[in-house]
Amino acid sequence: MRIGVLTSGGDCPGLNAVIRSVVHRAVVDHGDEVIGFHDGWKGLLECDYRKLDLDAVSGILARGGTILGSSRVQPAHLRGGVERARGHVADLGLDAIIPIGGEGTLKAARLLSDAGLPIVGVPKTIDNDIASTDVTFGFDTAVTVATEALDRLKTTAESHQRVLIVEVMGRHTGWIALHSGMAAGAHAIVVPERPFDVEELADVVGKRFEAGKKFAIVVVSEGAKPREGTMDFTAGATDVYGHERFTGVANQLSVELEERLGKEARPVILGHVQRGGTPTAYDRVLATRFGWHAVEAVHNGRFGMMTALRGTDIHLVPLAQAVEHLKTVPVERYTEAECVL
Amino acid sequence: MRIGVLTSGGDCPGLNAVIRSVVHRAVVDHGDEVIGFHDGWKGLLECDYRKLDLDAVSGILARGGTILGSSRVQPAHLRGGVERARGHVADLGLDAIIPIGGEGTLKAARLLSDAGLPIVGVPKTIDNDIASTDVTFGFDTAVTVATEALDRLKTTAESHQRVLIVEVMGRHTGWIALHSGMAAGAHAIVVPERPFDVEELADVVGKRFEAGKKFAIVVVSEGAKPREGTMDFTAGATDVYGHERFTGVANQLSVELEERLGKEARPVILGHVQRGGTPTAYDRVLATRFGWHAVEAVHNGRFGMMTALRGTDIHLVPLAQAVEHLKTVPVERYTEAECVL
Amino acid sequence: MRIGVLTSGGDCPGLNAVIRSVVHRAVVDHGDEVIGFHDGWKGLLECDYRKLDLDAVSGILARGGTILGSSRVQPAHLRGGVERARGHVADLGLDAIIPIGGEGTLKAARLLSDAGLPIVGVPKTIDNDIASTDVTFGFDTAVTVATEALDRLKTTAESHQRVLIVEVMGRHTGWIALHSGMAAGAHAIVVPERPFDVEELADVVGKRFEAGKKFAIVVVSEGAKPREGTMDFTAGATDVYGHERFTGVANQLSVELEERLGKEARPVILGHVQRGGTPTAYDRVLATRFGWHAVEAVHNGRFGMMTALRGTDIHLVPLAQAVEHLKTVPVERYTEAECVL
Amino acid sequence: MRIGVLTSGGDCPGLNAVIRSVVHRAVVDHGDEVIGFHDGWKGLLECDYRKLDLDAVSGILARGGTILGSSRVQPAHLRGGVERARGHVADLGLDAIIPIGGEGTLKAARLLSDAGLPIVGVPKTIDNDIASTDVTFGFDTAVTVATEALDRLKTTAESHQRVLIVEVMGRHTGWIALHSGMAAGAHAIVVPERPFDVEELADVVGKRFEAGKKFAIVVVSEGAKPREGTMDFTAGATDVYGHERFTGVANQLSVELEERLGKEARPVILGHVQRGGTPTAYDRVLATRFGWHAVEAVHNGRFGMMTALRGTDIHLVPLAQAVEHLKTVPVERYTEAECVL
């Protein structure tokens, strides 16, 4: 068989592990040929690719990023390109395409699949917000990086007798905040699923100081927002140049808390370190298994499906179902986390 | 309510996280009192304990080991002590005991539970061999430590043009070998579930050298054994003093492979580093959730049960069922791993 | 003898290692008594302290922060307090005081020493800008944390085809930027010692893209400033509330570079993670040696001195000399670093 | 100019950083051409090499091992090959050779230099035993890896109430044991420079238990030996096959201490993990500087010299002097370390 693989969307630790696994399983065990499209869907539309043999994927398992490059998917662009994609698939004699990507990518994958192209998707997001899989690779690495930062910040907050507002990734869901906050023993966790009330938050932190503690760590998702009417809030603060570019919630919260508590409060924005670099062992195993099962799905003709973790097993779920809704933090998970405050 | 907690068996990253979570949930949210027995079941039998309030568990979330101490359980000893335990539970006015431990501990827990004591167990093993839970805390840390070591060993094996036989923990099951081997891209993985044939192994490694590669990494569980009749083998090699104390498989395999391959082969025994030190973020979250749900089970009167992870949820399973059989590496997981050799 | 120890100024990995070493050397080897003042000089002025025996320092070697607490020194306040300090030293029967701190602390130490108090200083700064010692503990940890972040950011910058402007600590000197930039292979390093010209910087980065590279990493010290007249620049940007609080250089540079290069440029501000958490092995050894030699200096009556590393040996240098001038990055070190761009 | 570079001897984190730095400095700043010989001196003798341009060294800064391969130097072999080497240098039009290696390599370098070949050496050893430089790259990484392992082992030793005898690298000198033991707070440190008396050692550890402590960590260099007449000792224990291959000191010490103390004592042999994998930031900076200055030495015609760190500066020292004697742990450094036991 001849299989094309591509990576699309934001960086995510484990992408290379999937690529390597696809090539190993396909080439070594099935005698397939694998090509990799450059820069995501763009590579498919422009027929820009290279051959991927064992040498091409040697030594990439633990490397962050993607050897194939990536680009943000533009669904409209892709919609107009279905026929072009079909043409390239035919010209290249491809039996299957394995796109590895997040919500946008999987929606695009479904579009092409519905148009009859032979697609098996592999889900990818550090945010862990894809509903049809227990977890996605990249998430454990992001949580690990955030937790290590929080571990470090605790001693420095304590020495400086400060409140630190630590902003982690998560535009629509609070999974990274929830897990890293729980793992590091944060004193408050603020997620997009539950708009916050700054008075309540100040109250929680204030009680901690009243109890004699000398510092507090608040973990907040970048997408967190105040409950309506409780605080002036600019989603995406404006920088000194008038550009709306900096995520604003930690900055704004630190000002508000400082005023209410009379304690120094400082924002720390972890940023891109959460999505780069070598994946954790957990993510490497998950990514490798996803790659393996994607190749199996191709050989079993299970097109229009996506790999998913359920418990300890890898299942296939329809692409249609995969992107139906976002997996948000349920209230009971949030309640568990509150107990460790 | 008044709850007693104890840790029993070998060291495992995450024990302190469970203790902390039990105390937080019980004290803060339910207004309970918690005591901790020293050195496992011994503390219960000898009524050796201390009070655990919030201060007592401050700062322990990320610390390895157990602040309560531990000891290996001796079930026979415990059997004779059921009445003594019952007496202490009554004297101390305990409404529940939460033992945190491995197979032996959980068997003991069942014994006491069958005798009518109010027990909720929390499973613990770095080996991940408890069948009724998807995974146990401590396992991810062990795999992470082993993977980091393997990452380092790869470059040195390559520079020295050697075969390295890396022995990881796992007396009865190969989970640590499987996951760390897969995560690090080992070239062969040897587990207790599949007795090895040294000729076959030499063949796999030899083919790698024939293909022009300059080194190989073999990961082997400490409990791995050769297929009967294929190799002289001493389970637990004898040291120079005549003590049978060193795990022998990596040592013996390195000699056999060196003779067959004509390449330098060296054993590396990772040993106790796999079970000590700060837990990974994954293990801290799982341990914290286990502690939280154990307290809930106590308050719901669900005695004779054990916390377990199923998918992304924490369930309760009967202690009786929990220790029925060992969770071994199924053949399909091993097959997945082969593809990355 | 009776020795008082205190920590003053910002958090710095290794403070606890010094405290522990002082106590071990003094108590175990000399039979001294040690007390620790709380919250820096404040503790001395307010006679707020506790006894430090072996138990008090058990387990703190690898812990970030300081068990004694710290506060920023206010020299004026201290100047008025010399007599008060002298009184407390007499009342407590102290034979020596060992203050551990940065430039401000050492200046205060000199003040008290000149007034006749028995002082041996231990220098501390993650910035590495104290001239009379080859290096200070805390610096290696800060560089290590920054380097690990840069390692991660490289893959994500590559995947996203971006310029990342990474701001590291260093208000007056560029040591952390120089070492972390060199260690991680940054493509440009901007330090306070050499005001930058944004056109030149855009040129360097632009050439990299012209050569076919897909990303660039610029490391910039928080205290870096543009060459006069080359760029509008606000030292300390204003936030949305009108507070002048965010370090601005990475934010402003990213805007300027994006406009000039036509490539996405994003700021990443590493912040407080650089000064918290467990110290590296290097810093633990240096801190332990500083503590040991401070006690020796006390026993040898070498007051008014400070411990310093010269090559591989610990020397004593006069406090007067220690704080005479800042150790800045010399031009030849900068030249070395340029070669790795 | 045309420069040849080679790496020789055991693996050492930082080799690739030197190679990269040599290429960057030579190619970018001087317009030189660089070739790399394969597998150490063997590559020079057999004229086996490849061109090293900027692409060839892209991405290797943080990678362990050596992209050029290595082999153990056989001085006798090399002695017979001087004329062959001279011939290849002439044929290839080389203006200089930069060998990167340990004691054996530098002796060989001196041999060739004395024979008139244009050599600038770069010292390399994780053992830190080269006298003419304050420190060698690779050492900090080895100490860091050993310290991280010791950190982990402390909690597990405590939980199991055991003595752990941890064997680290160092055949002739105890630098790694000294620094990692000091960094991790080991309770005894045993180095080759001071033959140990097992009774004394048992006494030190025994007193710790008498003082109520529940565990002890002893760090021992692989080359440590007992004081004559104090203990039966087999340097290099024999394995079950009659092969003399396992370093024996930790194994033998654990048996002896267990018998004397009546406490479980277990050996842990860290082995090759200490010399592989990504170098620390410290080692990357030092290696990069060594490479830079080696190229400068070439351009300044300073042949027969070797790069060396003195304080914070890189100096050149004669190869003749460089290998005169081993840098051993001086007694005063050992005394410093004792205070932290």
Return residue spans of chain A where pLDDT drops below 50 for at least 5 consecutive residues: none
Strand arrangement across the biggest beta sheet of chain A? 3-2-1-4-5-12-13
Assembly category? homotetramer
Major beta sheet of chain A, specifics? Answer: 7 strands, mixed
Mean pLDDT of chain A: 92
Number of helices of chain A: 12
Name given to the CATH architecture of the largest domain in chain A: 3-Layer(aba) Sandwich
At the fold tier of CATH, the topology name of the largest domain in chain A is: Rossmann fold
The topology string of helices and strands of chain A comes to EHEHEHHEHEHEHEHEEEHEHEEHH
What is the overall shape of chain A?
elongated
**DSSP summary, beta strand count of chain A:** 13
Number of domains of chain A: 2
Tell me, what is the CATH class of the largest domain in chain A? Alpha Beta
Portion of residues within helices of chain A? 40-55%
Structural class of chain A: alpha/beta
N-end to C-end Cα span of chain A:
54 Å
Briefly characterize the structure.
4 copies of one chain form a homotetramer. With 341 residues, chain A is an alpha/beta fold. Chain A is built from 12 helices and 13 strands.
